[in-house]
Each structure stands twice: as C-alpha cells, then as structure tokens.
C-alpha cells in the first residue's frame, strides 16, 4: 500500500535534477492530464512541457497556460495544436516535437472519452473515434516518440496511459472483432473494457521490446473530470440521466482533484516503478511479469498501488498478444 503521505513526501523531493525536463501531455486540456500537468509545474522545477490539444480547446486552455507560467516562470509550456483523433495528425504532431527535442522524459496520455451512450462514429480515416483516441493514437504517439524516450538510458523515459490498468478480463477482449464493427460489440462499457484491454496487451509488447523504459497503465477510479458528458447526445434520455443523476453521483464519490494530481505525479516520477526516479524506500512496484525493482509495464490502481493481474496478462501474452499487435500495426503502418 502506498499512503497519501508517502506520495506527498516523494513529490516534495522533485527539483531540477529529479523532475522530467521534457514532457509531452496529450489530452491535458481537461481532466487528469490537466491536474497532473499543474502539479508538475507547481513543483517549481525547470521543465519544458508540450501541451497537445485540439484547435477548439485553445481559447479555454490559454488562461490555464498563463496561470502555469505565473505559477512557475521557470516552466515552459508549449501549446502544440493538432486533432489527435486522426492518426495522420498524430504523426505530424510527433514529427513537430521531434524536430525540437532529442530527449523526452515523460509521455502522459489521457485523451479520450467513454462511448457510454453514443452511436459508432468513424473519423475520416475510417476508425471509430473513441477507439482512435483511447488506443490507436496513444500507441502511435509511443511508437513515434520511442527514440526520444530512449535517448538517455541511465534515466528511463516513462510512458503513462490513463484508462483502466488492472481491470483487464480475458473475456473483455474481442479478438475476433478488434475494431468492434459487429452489431452489439460497440456498446458503452463493453467498448471501454475492450479498449483498456488492448492498451495493456500492446504496452506489454512494447515493454518487453524496450526494457530500458517504464510503462504505466493506470486506472483513475472515480475522478470528476466531466468527460462522462462527452459520451452522450444532447436532448436524449441518457443526457438527462447523466446531467441529473450520474454526474452528481460522480461528484459525491469522486477522488479530490488535488489527491488525484499528486498520485499521478508520483507515478510519473517515483522510483517505486522500475527503480529509477525519485528515491523510494517503500515496497517496490510489481510489474506484469511479477518482477520487483525492474522496468516493464505496471498496472496501477487509483490508490497508486500495483495490481499486476498476472493470470490475465500471462494468458494474453501466450494466446493474444501477437495477433493484437499484428492487427494494430496493420492500422498504424500507413502513419509512419
């Protein structure tokens, strides 16, 4: 168990030597990404952050960027515009960042929303938009930015994707319909469960092929980010349900913003995960292969505790991973 006081003590040690010098945040114009970005800047460390957001988000995000600069004049926030639900745009964004940076310490991925009460909607590239955001775009960001994440082997680069690490179930992964095109497969919680499973399978593959990096797939629990509202159509019964029941319920039971922010800052910087980072004297994190004190993929719950899900991950590693990866690369290959 990692206590909140231990998390705060670890984060208090962040400075120019221990904080990420260059970080990329995708989807941090709201929600957990925004909270974590603010917590990182608030450490006072000298850091350069690429905040990737859509054009439609800039006007509401600019006051936040100004706030960050006032909070820590030593932090540089670089607004990087792009429609990252499109894989072609994801490639362009990555190339733009790589043209400026040789080394990236942290890649923080939170873009997306749950398709709880929406119909299937495809992007102009023929990919369902929530799956592109929650899976394909995230993996493409990792693949494109790998050279910069691996540029300084003595300090492992770290990739954090926030979705549902530790909630994997073998039956939730639709191996015969990975893009959920068959009737009934694209349905609310079923689609979200499928997406989180895809992330864990693909990150397990990436972690094995890149043992010098740290990968974290996190489950945020109940955090009142407002993203639930994006998964409904205005004027429907479901919109009414979310507005008057589900939204207020989430507000009542959710983790406080400042608590969530500190937990994710801890996951982004602590040596608890892999052994490198801010010194950690507690129990080492356990990766999905059951190893302590080693890099790899860590499934982390909303209390910042590792939940390796060894049985499920072992089954997928043997029976599903290569098929999922082959399909994924078939989708992503045109965008390299």
Automatic annotation (TrEMBL):
Any one Pfam family match given in the protein's UniProt record, by short name: adh_short
SUPFAM superfamilies according to UniProt: NAD(P)-binding Rossmann-fold domains
Signal sequence range: none
Protein name: Short chain dehydrogenase/reductase family protein
UniProt keyword Cytoplasm present: no
A single GO molecular function term of this UniProt record: oxidoreductase activity
Organism: Cercophora newfieldiana
Presence of keyword Oxidoreductase: yes
Alphabetized UniProt keyword annotations: Oxidoreductase
PANTHER family registered for this protein in UniProt: ALCOHOL DEHYDROGENASE-LIKE C-TERMINAL DOMAIN-CONTAINING PROTEIN, YALI0E05731P
Phylogenetic placement of the source organism: Eukaryota, Fungi, Dikarya, Ascomycota, Pezizomycotina
Domain of life: Eukaryota
